[in-house]
């Protein structure tokens, strides 16, 4: 099994962001509050091409700031909570089974460094396992003949990856094992995003200018995950009820608003984010 070096040696984490839900009781979680809205509402909120900001003092060379780091964690955790509470759809109108011991993700600045380094290559292909220290990796690219495009690229990427579940399935009401057939059906980005044992994510972004015979501008998203998921013949997540009490989590504390298990001890409020439909390529 790969050793995910950035997680245990160089990790620098932003505070965990979770959804604040107005519920008198834990068991009144509603799918509508755990489902990201359309990203047309957020397309103009973020600047993806600014001077960037360091990540807890670490300079990764990114062109975005802490607001987008927060948005990345927020959207990933919304989708994971959506799954944990039985709100994620499968083909044919069914829903995926609920999840127990689903970790809430934190932002990992060391993973951002790795992701941004690879994004800077403007090569739409996976990096090597050694280049990313064994971390998992999801890629997303949007191409256009136009030199400018206003969008919430991280939201588009996350939603595109998550939509693989509804499009291809890959789990049943009684089994979430990642099989080779399931992986090859096209759910690999979703399964990494949903991998219950993963605890952190860090992303990079690059606007890649046309070059050579390529006349298209590419807006490129790379997200790395630790510990990595997508181990064949292992469960993507455990089927069961999402947590209501700390004792329901095998590690960490229960975030009662979402049913996710957190090891950060932080319970900050976030706003909802959304997704927009584009012509898109997944890898």
From TrEMBL:
SMART domains: SCP. The keyword Signal applies. The keyword Transmembrane helix does not apply. Residues 67-233 form the SCP domain. CDD domains: CAP_euk. Residues 1-28 form the signal peptide. Keywords: Signal. Gene3D superfamilies: CAP. One of its GO terms (cellular component) is extracellular region. It holds the Pfam family CAP. PANTHER family: CYSTEINE-RICH SECRETORY PROTEIN-RELATED. This is SCP domain-containing protein.
């Amino acid at each position: 099994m790969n050793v995910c070096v950035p997680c245990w040696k160089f990790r620098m984490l932003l505070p965990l962001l979770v959804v604040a839900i107005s519920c008198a009781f834990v068991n009144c979680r509603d799918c509508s509050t755990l489902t990201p809205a359309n990203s047309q509402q957020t397309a103009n909120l973020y600047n993806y091409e600014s001077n960037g900001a360091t990540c807890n003092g670490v300079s990764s060379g990114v062109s975005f700031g802490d607001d987008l780091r927060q948005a990345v964690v927020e959207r990933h955790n919304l989708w994971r909570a959506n799954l944990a509470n039985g709100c994620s759809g499968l083909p044919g109108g069914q829903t995926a089974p609920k999840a127990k011991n689903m970790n809430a993700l934190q932002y990992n600045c060391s993973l951002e460094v790795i992701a941004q380094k690879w994004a800077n290559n403007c090569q739409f292909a996976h990096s090597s396992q050694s280049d990313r220290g064994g971390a998992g990796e999801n890629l997303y690219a949007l191409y256009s003949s136009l030199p400018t495009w206003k969008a919430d690229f991280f939201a588009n990427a996350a939603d595109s990856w998550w939509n693989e579940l509804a499009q291809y399935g890959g789990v049943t009401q009684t089994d979430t094992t990642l099989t080779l057939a399931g992986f090859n059906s096209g759910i690999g980005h979703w399964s990494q995003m949903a991998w219950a044992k993963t605890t952190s994510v860090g992303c990079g972004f690059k606007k890649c200018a046309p070059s050579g015979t390529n006349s298209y501008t590419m807006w490129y998203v790379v997200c790395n995950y630790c510990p990595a998921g997508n181990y064949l013949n292992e469960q993507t997540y455990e089927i069961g009820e999402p947590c209501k009490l700390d004792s329901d989590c095998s590690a960490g504390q229960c975030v009662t608003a979402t049913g996710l298990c957190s090891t950060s001890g932080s319970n900050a409020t976030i706003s909802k984010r959304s997704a927009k439909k584009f012509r898109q390529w997944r890898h």
